Amino acid sequence: MANAEIELEVPPTTEAIDGKTRLILAGEQLFAQNGINGSSMREIATKAGQGNHAAVQYHFGSREGLVRGIFDYRMEQMEAERGAMLERARATGSLKDARTILEIILLPQLGLHDADGNHSYASFLSQYLLQSRSPEFGDFSGSEPPHLTQALQLMRQRVDYLPPYVAQRRLISVSLMFLNILMRHHGTDEAAFGESFPDALEDTMEQIVGSMCMPLRLASSRQPAAYSGPSDPVDLALG
Question: Which of 70, 120, 155, 175 has the most CB atoms in a 10 Å sphere around its CB?
């Protein structure tokens, strides 16, 4: 990998940060656990240690505003590392290399942990992406940090043979692949999976490159074959 080890600063404990940031971190954890629509603003305020149960509305205006706040907070944490990775890629002439670009987009998330040491941002982002319906490439949250924006532009140029909606669908798919390996393997007992996290990540990144860059092979007019098998759930389970 171009940059296998990424270390980002772990956020300070909740006692050392301001109330708005505590709301962001509490919202991220609860959204990760219960779904983006699964926790009330009152629950988030309580978890953040806010006596005022309207604190989320005061700082963010709405649930959507809090979601944007989470993205802005985490994106800013990853910007410096992405900038350094872009500089290294530029120095080595690797700005057109798909693996390098995808590492710049994905790998900085390795260093994001919540107060419990878990990857709650990965779970939160997974749920957000599963709800995404935008066909515009790189449109996730409305946040546009410069280094991530540049990496996404480089990726779009690299797969300029794909229609934009196909490129966006693939970007979401490979992002979910990465987030899955992060949530499932990272920090677990190697014996439980039969492979180390670095080995699992390396294999996943190779799959990601292939999935993102594969030429579009099917004609646009081709329709999926109609399923003609059993329709009864019991028959499906037995068959």
Answer: 70
